[in-house]
Amino acid sequence: MRVIVAAVLVVCSIAKLSQASTLANEQKAKLREYKELCIAESGVDTALLDSIKNGGAVTRDTKLDCFSSCLLQKIGVQRADGTIDRDRVIEKAKTSNADLAKVNDVIEKCKGLGGKDACEIGGNVLGCFIKEKTLYPYWTENTQ
């Protein structure tokens, strides 16, 4: 399955669901920290993340899925068992001025995605959100 997988706040996971959605400097700093921790934890190739950042489509692998899951867990929207906490997604969306109607629409389209473990679920969920064109790689917002 080809998918652009980025790291973000699941529907708005401190990224951007609409043009009006913005990140505070403190949120950007926290995302940088999470990104580095998740790179170390997952072992994902940083060249792959750079490719994603530049719009490249990639073939998913376990390391990329685990990177995605790690980020979703660190921002508090994915539980340890891999399930997504819809209420936390909505709560996070509200803090970034996201379009809540769009957030709910995407949650409906992407709900119920499973996987064999938290990593696969994280990859599936982020892949769906990106496919729905609601997310872009968070680090394009000068979080590097």
From TrEMBL:
Gene3D superfamilies (alphabetical): Pheromone/general odorant binding protein domain
GO MF annotation terms: odorant binding
A GO CC term assigned to this protein in UniProt: extracellular space
UniProt-listed SMART domains: PhBP
Record key words, sorted: Signal
Transferase among keywords: no
Signal peptide location: 1-20
A Pfam family annotated for this UniProt entry: PBP_GOBP
Domain of life per record: Eukaryota
Name of this protein: Odorant-binding protein 36
GO annotation, biological process: sensory perception of smell
